[in-house]
Each structure stands twice: as structure tokens, then as C-alpha cells.
Amino acid sequence: MSSLASLPTLHTLSQICANPDALMQQLRYRNNGDPVLLLQDAVLMAQQPRFSDSLNQLQLYILNDDLVARGVTIAPNVNATIIDYSQFVQLTLNTQQQVAW
């Protein structure tokens, strides 16, 4: 079993950022391998091509219920794993902590 210190940190974003630079500034403390989850209004960034390069630098997850609630489909060039609530719970169990932005 891995020690808690070796587990990654889950970063969750619930609001859309003004631009890609603001997104990366917000996540500046993220380590490589830390998963990032878009939920609530933040899922709208996955629809906008201007965010695709920044989002593709991340180990990205997107909450499906929030995509559906907003009628959003992700841009074809965004690499992300779409997850449901049970997978969200599993993701939190596989990380040492969660940081909400």
C-alpha cells in the first residue's frame, strides 16, 4: 500500500477561468500526475477551443452530470476522461487531498 504522502492531490475547478493563462495560473501549484476535475460551470472550458492546449497538459477528468446539465459537449481536441459520481468518489479515494479552486 502506498503511503499517503506519495498519493497525488486532486484539484477541482468549479468556475470557468477568464482565459487559458488564468487557468494555468490557478493550477500553478499542481504537480505532474495530479488529476484535475472540471465540474459545475468549469465544464464549459472543455467546450471552448481556446482552452484545449492548456487542458491537454492536465490529467483531466470532467463530471458527466455537469456536462449534461449544461448541454455541453467537449471540443474534439480535448483529451479528458468523462466520469460519473461514483468514479468521482473513487478518484478522491485515490488521492491524498482535494484542493478546490
Automatic annotation (TrEMBL):
The keyword Transferase applies. It comes from the Bacteria. GO terms for cellular component: sulfurtransferase complex. One of its GO terms (molecular function) is transferase activity. GO terms for biological process: tRNA wobble position uridine thiolation. Gene3D superfamilies: DsrEFH-like. Keywords: Transferase. The keyword 4Fe-4S does not apply. PANTHER family: PROTEIN TUSB. This is Sulfurtransferase complex subunit TusB.
